[in-house]
Design brief:
Blueprint lengths: L4 H6 L7 E4 L3 E5 L7 E7 L15 H16 L7 E4 L15 E5 L9
């Protein structure tokens, strides 16, 4: 999608602090972190939200979680814990219409989040 912020970030058209990249996903640090470690993982393919998964694109979810697993180990978050967040739709707090997963760690995270 031409005007999608996250599509532009994944293509390198908008600068970001990259954590990881492969042919399917891009991970980068959040510009307004809510924890000492806060990054996002997005598919390079434009998928608006969790409501838009189908038989043709659902495999990207398992790949995203595989990448998250790799990154939390590399960033020393796995043993102490972390949180994975996906906001879906306006009432769910989704502000960018490109599915993305926030990964937060590096401190004790409270519940409920807000």
């Amino acid at each position: 999608m031409e005007d999608c912020l996250f599509c532009k970030i994944a293509k390198g058209e908008i600068p970001s602090k990259k954590v990881y990249e492969d042919d399917k996903v891009y991970a980068f640090y959040d510009i307004n972190p809510e924890a000492p470690i806060h990054f996002l993982v997005i598919p390079k393919e434009h998928i608006q939200s969790a409501n838009d998964f189908n038989d043709n694109n659902i495999n990207v979810i398992s790949h995203i979680f595989k990448v998250i697993n790799k990154l939390v180990v590399e960033l020393n978050m796995a043993d102490k814990g972390y949180r994975i967040i996906n906001n879906c739709g306006e009432d769910g707090g989704q502000t960018v219409n490109h599915i993305h997963f926030h990964v937060l760690g590096g401190r004790s995270l409270q519940w409920p989040p807000g």
